[in-house]
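Hi R.,

Here's the chain you asked about this morning:
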Amino acid sequence: MSHCTVRIASPLRSYTAGAATLTAHGSTVAEVLRSLEERCPGIRFRMIDEQDRIRPHMRLFVNSSEAHELSAAVRDGDTVHVICALSGGGGGPVEQ
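And here is the predicted structure, written out as tokens:
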């Protein structure tokens, strides 16, 4: 089974005891997230919905390629990046 590095976005680090980087195993993104869930209970639900789809505000990358499906391949030595989209702001023009 492949071992990879998982880089965790700061909003999810409360699940990782503050760790920004973890090691996980799996040959697909789904397997890597299951491995991560074993060590960090509750983190998978923040990324994946009840229909097993990546949540709209989450982006998962394997190295530099976005993983649109949980079946995306992960190879030994890859890095999986977990990124949270930011939202909010005033919405109006910025005055100068």
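One quick note: The chain has a mean pLDDT of 91.

Cheers,
M.
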